[in-house]
Design a protein that fits this description.
The protein is α/β, with parallel strands linked by helices. It has 2 domains: 148 residues, Lysozyme-like (3-Layer(aba) Sandwich), CATH 3.40.80.10; 55 residues, no CATH class. It contains 7 helices and 8 strands. It has a 6-stranded mixed sheet with strand order 1-5-4-7-3-8, with helices on both faces. The chain has a two-stranded antiparallel sheet with strand order 2-6. Strand 4 and strand 5 form a beta hairpin. The longest helix is centred in the middle third of the chain and has 17 residues. The two termini are 29 Å apart. The mean pLDDT is 92.
Length: 235
């Protein structure tokens, strides 16, 4: 029988020295997904555990599904960097970071996706993180980061209740409120509208180009509503 997303996942402990305490009493209410953009999982693990680079994540999932934990969830890993989500910075202090062994161009293998689903199911259930709390590095850092990229299957996660995805019921927005809706969804308000739109499209409409259109406006309006109403997560 296939594993459900909520089944425990075997995880190997490989500690990284690159972490600190979460600031201001913050606890995780987000999970941020990344890709490693490195040649192998072993190379990525070495980088994430090297004090000279000052980067880390809580988890790393290999292409074959092998999963390594490098930082305790209660500690602050150094994965997100500059950026914001829902009007708040210091994303490192309020998130759990997951790195996926991927070069940024290739599809994400089935075994890796299954491992990710199981890990997310466990984390999000234990910490009561809603589907809207699962974001990409590109979402919180538009124009600076593009991971997990255009090949990542967000809709697959949404069908399991792990992410949000605007479905066929996404209706047209009233007027041209695209940027307002994107900010309401969580995207940083201090980034120029074209850059924010590109980040939004990377996740929800990755092959779209050109000026904003009615489809962008409808999808953004739907995502904004999902961000505040969990019942609409796969509307």
């Amino acid at each position: 029988m296939p594993s459900r997303a909520t089944d425990p996942l075997p995880v190997r402990w490989h500690p990284s020295p690159n972490f600190g305490a979460r600031r201001g009493g913050l606890v995780p209410d987000l999970v941020v997904l990344h890709y490693t953009a490195m040649a192998t999982m072993e190379a990525a693990l070495a980088r994430l555990c090297d004090p000279a680079f000052e980067v880390s994540a809580h988890y790393l999932i290999g292409a074959n599904g092998d999963t390594v934990q490098m930082v305790r969830e209660d500690d602050r890993a150094w994965h997100a960097g500059a950026g914001a989500w829902r009007g708040r910075g210091d994303v490192n202090s309020r998130s759990i970071g997951i790195e996926l062994d991927n070069d940024g161009r290739s599809p994400f293998p089935e075994r890796q996706m299954v491992a990710l689903e199981r890990l997310l199911g466990d984390i999000m259930a234990r910490r009561a993180i809603a589907p809207a709390g699962l974001i990409g590095h590109s979402d919180m850092a538009p124009g600076r980061k593009i991971d997990p990229g255009a090949r990542f299957d967000w809709r697959r996660l949404a069908l399991q209740g792990l992410a949000i995805w605007p479905g066929a019921s996404a209706g047209a927005a009233d007027g041209d409120r695209l940027h307002d809706d994107l900010c309401a969804a969580g995207y940083p308000a201090d980034v120029d509208p074209d850059t924010v739109l590109a980040a939004f499209r990377l996740r929800f409409r990755p092959w779209a180009h050109g000026p904003a259109d009615a489809t962008d406006r409808a999808l953004a309006h739907a995502v904004a509503r999902m961000a505040v109403d969990p019942a609409r997560a796969t509307a």
